[in-house]
Write a structure and sequence with these properties.
The protein is an all-alpha fold. The chain has 16 helices and no strands. Helix 10 packs antiparallel against helix 12. The chain is globular. The two termini are about 20 Å apart. The C terminus is likely disordered.
Length: about 400
């Protein structure tokens, strides 16, 4: 693999995966399915937002971890294992340590502040009042914490080059991708609720390694065997049809939304325990995850493998925007509960205002500062090397 090659579609897909986080979290507030689960759940809701949130949830973060593995292998190939791990500590672990307490403080403040003027409190506020000792969560920053763990594991494996190369070669074999990978993910997800929750605990979660961790390894294999992507692109049509039909089946098999009592129980236990295990729902979920992730990845390769000033800027900004977007979104959505605006207008305001604030704050407070240096690394004049330097959370 030529490590001076610039993979523009990887940049663009990463931006999409991260920025779709705003769409996903905004939709949670307006989907009735999530009325007991989300901080800013609005009494005004529409079933369309159930489908939007659940659909994006299926592929957004799986896609991100495939991209993350691709970029990790690229950086190991370019700089070596030790420089890779040093870079990951700076780009992942330090931001996690800094932003997690800041995010928790902002979320607690948003809840406390809005409680004083909201006409109708979100049901999740009742859950908070019912729990004396809540379990610490990594919130939407769970992806950094999990990615740090996967990078550490890949770094250890990379010291044994024969094992490393065999593992990455096997991870992109058709037999593995079509049969073994679905079995691993289905088994990993069999202990989790449907739709699957985020692995947001401080302690490493085994099922996350069997799901996101394996996809991370697949992404690393795709870097070293990039021709596999070229050969697989002709399968996009079939994959997309499979994705659509599996999504419809998934919607049909979704269990009822958890009640307030179940959410209180989950908050006390620190985990949501499903009442019933439906193997068909878990299997269909796995098929939908993999088919949508593969479809979006291949579509990005075919149609997003180009760069312009806007896409480059969004790629740089996306990490900061994702880190900061949940508190911003809450400060926007919670006051909107008191308004009589259409739920669709509330959603548009939430997404556009959060994205706008994220971009403005990035441009004026982050891009040319030490924060930008921490998150994005040094910006270089040479495009072929810039991708390697600017790895962000890839």
């Amino acid at each position: 693999m030529n490590t001076t090659e610039r993979f523009h579609y990887i940049d663009n897909l990463r931006s999409i995966a991260l920025l779709f986080g705003i769409v996903f979290h905004a939709a949670l507030a307006y989907g009735p399915y999530f009325s007991t689960m989300w901080f800013s759940a609005d009494p005004s809701n529409h079933v369309l937002f159930n489908y939007l949130a659940i659909w994006t949830h299926l592929f957004r973060m799986p896609l991100f971890f495939v991209i993350a593995g691709f970029c990790a292998a690229l950086l190991i190939s370019k700089r070596g294992p030790n420089a890779f791990m040093t870079d990951r500590l700076k780009r992942l672990l330090i931001p996690f340590i800094i932003f997690l307490p800041l995010t928790l403080i902002c979320v607690v403040h948003a809840i406390s502040w809005s409680s004083s003027f909201l006409d109708t409190l979100p049901l999740l506020f009742t859950v908070f009042k019912s729990v004396d000792e809540p379990v610490i969560t990594t919130m939407h920053l769970w992806f950094i914490w999990n990615l740090s763990q996967f990078c550490l594991l890949l770094w250890l494996i990379s010291h044994y080059q024969k094992l490393y190369q065999v593992l990455l070669s096997l991870s992109v074999k058709p037999l593995f991708l079509c049969m073994i990978l679905p079995i691993i993910i289905t088994f990993a997800m069999s202990s989790q609720a449907v739709p699957f929750p985020p692995p947001d605990k401080i302690m490493p979660m085994g099922w996350s390694f069997g799901f996101y961790g394996v996809l991370f390894i697949v992404g690393a294999g795709l870097f070293h065997h990039h021709k596999k992507i070229i050969h697989t692109r002709r399968c996009l049509g079939g994959l997309f049809l499979l994705a659509v039909f599996s999504l419809l089946a998934y919607f049909a098999l979704l269990p009822p939304a958890p009640t307030l009592e179940k959410m209180i129980e989950a908050a006390r236990l620190g985990a949501f325990v499903p009442e019933h295990f439906n193997p068909w729902a878990v299997i269909v979920q796995t098929v939908a995850i993999l088919s949508w992730t593969a479809s979006v990845f291949l579509a990005g390769y075919l149609w997003l493998n180009k760069q312009n000033a806007t896409s480059r800027y969004l790629s740089d900004a996306s990490y900061w925007i994702y880190l900061s977007h949940v508190p911003i979104l809450l400060y926007i959505q919670l006051p909107l509960i008191n308004t009589d605006l259409s739920v669709f207008l509330k959603f548009i305001i939430s997404v556009c205002a959060t994205l706008g604030i994220g971009l403005i704050s990035y441009h004026y407070l982050v891009r040319g500062t030490v924060i930008g240096l921490l998150l994005n690394g040094k910006r270089t004049a040479h495009a072929t090397n810039q991708y390697v330097v600017n790895q962000n959370t890839n």
